[in-house]
UniProtKB/TrEMBL annotation:
Keywords: Membrane, Signal, Transmembrane, Transmembrane helix. The keyword Signal applies. Residues 42-59 have a biased composition (Polar residues). This is DUF4352 domain-containing protein. It comes from Thermoactinomyces mirandus. Residues 65-188 form the DUF4352 domain. It holds the Pfam family DUF4352. The chain crosses the membrane at residues 12-35.
Length: 196
């Protein structure tokens, strides 16, 4: 009797474990199918959603013209004057641009926030019609400011303003826009001013 009971118990145990194992396999396949389906859905919908948001963000950037005062967060900008120069010179010497000409801008910046801001070169940029970005020419500043004191890294107190010159080394006969950014590092607020 005992020999007959052992095979039945072993058979029941094998069927029970096999059923549980089979249930895990079925559950695993079902989960994989569901996860795979949701990943496919996310992959196809995410890029189109992101690109739509990117276009909306681009459309929200204010576009102004020379002489307009426009605000980027707590900072306002106005391009007062644009000059095209083949060479910058002062008592020290002169400098020729590497790309063809210097675009020298006279810009006024206002701090409309509640805290002092530090005028930083990363707050200013040019962009051409193809989307290429241009930073200011740091070496050219010494020809614009004979005393050697540039406006960058100077503070502007709340409700204060500062006018300064900045030079960009650019190709001639191109259209450029000035980009002015907010003073806060984590802010993406900016303005765009057409220079033509």
């Amino acid at each position: 009797m005992s020999s007959e009971g052992k095979p039945k118990k072993a058979k029941k145990w094998l069927i029970g474990c096999g059923s549980i194992f089979l249930a895990f396999i079925v559950l695993g396949v079902a989960c994989t199918a569901l996860i795979g389906e949701s990943l496919d859905t996310e992959t196809t919908t995410t890029p189109s959603a992101d690109s739509g948001q990117g276009n909306q963000a681009q459309k929200k950037t204010p576009v102004a013209k020379i002489g307009d005062k426009v605000k980027a967060g707590d900072v306002s900008y106005r391009v007062d004057k644009v000059e095209h120069k083949e060479r910058l010179k002062n008592a020290i010497g002169s400098k020729k641009p590497g790309s063809g000409e210097f675009l020298v801008l006279t810009i006024t910046v206002w701090n409309e926030g509640k805290e002092p801001i530090t005028l930083d070169s990363s707050m200013t940029q040019l962009i051409d019609r193809n989307g290429a970005e241009y930073n200011y020419d740091a070496e050219a500043l010494m020809y614009l400011y004979e005393d050697g004191e540039t406006p960058f890294l100077e503070q502007i107190n709340p409700n204060g303003e500062k006018q300064f010159l900045i030079a960009f080394d650019v190709a001639p006969n191109q259209e450029y826009d000035f980009i002015g950014k907010n003073a806060l590092i984590f802010s993406d607020a900016q303005v765009r001013i057409k220079l033509k």
